[in-house]
Amino acid sequence: MTLRDWFAARQKSQLVDTEREKREVADGLWTKCGTCTEPLFTKDLSANLHVCPKCGHHFRVGARDRIAQLLDPGTFNESFAELRSIDPLEFVDSKPYTQRLIESRAKAGEGDSVITGTGQLQGMAIAIAAMDFGFMGGSMGSVMGEKLTRLVEEAIPARLPLVLVASSGGARMQEGTLSLMQMAKTSAALARFAKEGLLYISVLSDPTTGGVSASFAMQADLILAEPGAIIGFAGRRVIEATIHQKAPSDFQTAEWVFKHGHIDQIVPRPRLRDALGLLIGLHTQRKLDPARVAVS
């Protein structure tokens, strides 16, 4: 074999390997990390709570996966699942809002962008809400506001602590002012919740922005965040265009927001359940195992 033939054969082998990798990624067998580009066996990634074992990148997860990661198995009772968004404004952009809702329900497998309910975390009863970025970017519409408000109102007489996992691009523009009103609505419910001396913990995942970050997601007694999560209000480009300056490379990351005092702690996903259990246990004066105290 000549040197030219050897290089040709090697190039062909690399092309075959690349095509095989593309096929396996498309088939769902492998997932490429968005940060380190390492190909990861999807089953192993799932077992690691969708955190890259190589670089620690936190993949986005759906609301039901999130609830399953945090709650004790078999304890979740979903509430208000029957609520569905409608199209009061008959809004049309590149396609009708009603069509977007149909497509989003099919894609995410959920009725709307948040799942609410009650369950147990390490044996302690809690109210929980998890937002699903896969449903129209986790956008806040009337249904999200209604479900969160009802959850808070049910948690008050039951004396339940509240855990909310946020993941949202902000208000749902297809509902206009009706969407923006959910900021005031949920904030008023949380004010009543706080007046009762009940514990509210917010967990900010990637991304938490817009009207969600400007209201209920940042009004908690304790605000945790996952590593690398984008947290802010307006986007980087909008802010840079407004202030006519280049933002730092880590701008609006959980680490940058923590450094500037806007959140209480950054907690990696594999330690999140224990961290929440510790915090809720301290608030309810539950007897704690000293070995579990060092989760921060």
Overview of this structure, please?
- This protein is α/β, with parallel strands linked by helices.
- It has a single domain (60-292), classed as Alpha-Beta Complex (2-enoyl-CoA Hydratase, Chain A, domain 1), CATH 3.90.226.10.
- The protein has helices at residues 3-26, 42-47, 63-70, 97-108, 142-158, 176-195, 210-213, 236-243, 254-259, 269-283, and strands spanning 30-32, 39-41, 77-79, 114-121, 124-131, 162-168, 200-208, 222-225, 265-266.
- The strands form two sheets. It has a seven-stranded mixed beta sheet, with helices on both faces. Strands 1-2 form a two-stranded antiparallel sheet.
- Helix 5 packs parallel to helix 6.
Give a short synopsis of this structure:
With 296 residues, the chain is of the alpha/beta class. It is built from 10 helices and 9 strands. α5 packs parallel to α6.
Number of strands: 9
The strand line-up of the biggest sheet is 3-4-5-6-7-8-9
Write the CATH fold name: 2-enoyl-CoA Hydratase, Chain A, domain 1
The stretches of 5 or more residues where confidence is low (pLDDT under 50) are none
For the record, what CATH class applies?
Alpha Beta
Structural domains: how many: 1
Strand content: 15-25%
Q: Note the total helix count.
A: 10
Fourth CATH level, the homologous superfamily? 2-enoyl-CoA Hydratase, Chain A, domain 1
**What would the principal axes of the Cα set say about the shape?**
globular
Label this structure with key terms.
296 residues, seven-stranded mixed β-sheet, two-stranded antiparallel sheet, 16% strand
